[in-house]
């Protein structure tokens, strides 16, 4: 397995990570993730710590051969992009206001892991990172399998604050496909580094679950 060709998500799972900028139906299978949950405005300073924990764990696995601690079945791969499931807290959902306060956002951030990562190895990696870089957030990290199932998705180009236009396209598309949303939350997948890309060129995969009516 060590001689296996490098797995790159941009090539292997292009439909899931690089869709077109128009709505489409897609069926997303089960994948393994490191996840962490939180609440608040993603523009606030605390948010980067959550992201940092996930990347620290992900790159520990990616670089494990250099530390002589790679798991059985390891193969080289490109670290997967950051993802997030977003929703509003219950109080905000009950508000009659059309707009929302970003402080009311609740989120579940995650980074997908290769199939060779087991529950046991994930726990081992969390323990190793705790020893090297102790941080209270590591106690909140989970390793879990998540299945999105049938979804509508689109590649949104531009500011996060302009996503509503893409969601309108997705909702209209779902209606035409005789589908209805299964939840008010949605998934975002961040393609590229927002610190290095101008706002008008940001690429974000937007996705929400649906079921046939």
Tell me what the structure shows:
The chain is of the alpha+beta class and 213 residues long. The protein has one domain (9-212): Alpha-Beta Barrel (Multidrug-efflux Transporter 1 Regulator Bmrr, Chain A), CATH 3.20.80. It contains 6 helices and 7 strands. The longest helix is centred in the first third of the chain and has 17 residues, at 46-62.
N-to-C series of helices and strands: HHEHEHEHEHEEE
Indicate the mean pLDDT: 93
Q: Which structural class should the secondary elements be placed in? A: alpha+beta
| Major sheet size, sense and barrel closure | 6 strands, antiparallel, barrel
How much helix, percentage-wise, in residues? 25-40%
Rg over C-alpha atoms, rounded to the nearest angstrom: 18 Å
Number of domains: 1
Distance between the termini: 44 Å
Within CATH, the superfamily carries the name Regulatory factor, effector binding domain
**CATH architecture tag:** Alpha-Beta Barrel
Strand content range: 25-35%
Number of strands: 7
Oligomeric state of this protein:
single chain
CATH topology: Multidrug-efflux Transporter 1 Regulator Bmrr, Chain A
């Amino acid at each position: 397995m060590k001689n296996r060709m490098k797995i790159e998500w941009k090539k292997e799972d292009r439909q899931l990570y690089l869709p077109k900028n128009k709505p489409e139906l897609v069926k997303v299978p089960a994948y393994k993730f490191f996840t962490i949950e939180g609440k608040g405005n993603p523009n606030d300073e605390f948010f980067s710590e959550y992201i940092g924990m996930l990347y620290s764990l992900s790159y520990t696995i990616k670089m494990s051969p250099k530390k002589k601690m790679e798991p059985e079945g390891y193969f080289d791969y490109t670290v997967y992009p950051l993802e997030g499931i977003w929703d509003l807290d219950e109080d905000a959902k009950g508000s009659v206001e059309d707009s929302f306060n970003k402080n009311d956002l609740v989120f579940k951030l995650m980074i997908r892991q290769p199939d060779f990562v087991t529950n046991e190895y994930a726990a081992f990696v969390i323990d190793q990172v705790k020893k090297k870089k102790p941080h209270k957030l590591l106690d909140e990290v989970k390793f879990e399998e998540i299945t999105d199932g049938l979804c509508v998705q689109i590649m949104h180009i531009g500011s996060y604050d302009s996503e509503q236009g893409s969601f309108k396209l997705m909702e209209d598309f779902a209606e035409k496909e005789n589908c209805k949303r299964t939840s008010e939350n949605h998934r975002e997948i961040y393609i590229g580094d927002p610190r290095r890309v101008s706002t008008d060129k940001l690429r974000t995969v937007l996705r929400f679950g649906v079921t046939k009516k």
